[in-house]
Design a protein that fits this description.
Number of domains: 1
CATH superfamily: Class I glutamine amidotransferase (GATase) domain
Oligomer: single chain
Structural class: alpha/beta
Strand order of the largest sheet: 2-1-3-4-13-12-11-8
Shape: globular
Largest sheet: 8 strands, mixed
Radius of gyration: 16 Å
Helix content: 25-40%
CATH class: Alpha Beta
Distance between the termini: 13 Å
Order of helices and strands: EHEHEHHEHEEEEEEEEEH
CATH topology: Rossmann fold
Amino acid sequence: MQRVVIVDLGMGNLRSVERAIVQAAENTGSACEVRRSGEAEDIAGADKVVMPGQGAFRDCAARLSGPVGEALRESIGRGKPYLGICLGLQALFERSEEAPGAAGLGVFRGEVRRLDAGAGTDAVKIPHMGWNRLERSREARGALEAWGEEPPYVYFVHSYHAAPEDPSLVVFTATHGPNRVTAAIQRDNVTATQFHPEKSGAVGLALLGAFVRE
């Protein structure tokens, strides 16, 4: 039985993520033990790692500055499947405009930038909150293949998004006013979404099911 650890940084409603992963595993017939933990040894011992999170980048960076961050980098470096959700995507990058001087995991080069509210007829509300349709940037692999050829609507809640130096990381985007939002990235064993699969109904369960099954 595979061990799936949800990284608990004390940020966001992890219970909803846990319930969604358990449901997705049942839907796909995947045998797995799902647990929440903020301990480096549990992350190191996991078969798969899920890192959700809502809140401030600076708080996240502070919690990742010690053993937990090192365990995550090592886990990713060893090829263990990683699924980042919302702040769990942003934390993969080097820095954020939200918190100058705070360091992310630095798995990928680039920064996290604030969404532009725009002006006039292009003006939109920030945070970007609610359902929005994904737009494909390149061929999806792994869990991001769960929906086939038709990109679905998914649920977002965020004010910042990633701007990778390597644009080939981006699999899906979404349009919010003048912003081309980085909605999902994928590279080797790392998959991450700016949207919330646990809030995205059957579409989100399909992604989570594909992640625990692969």
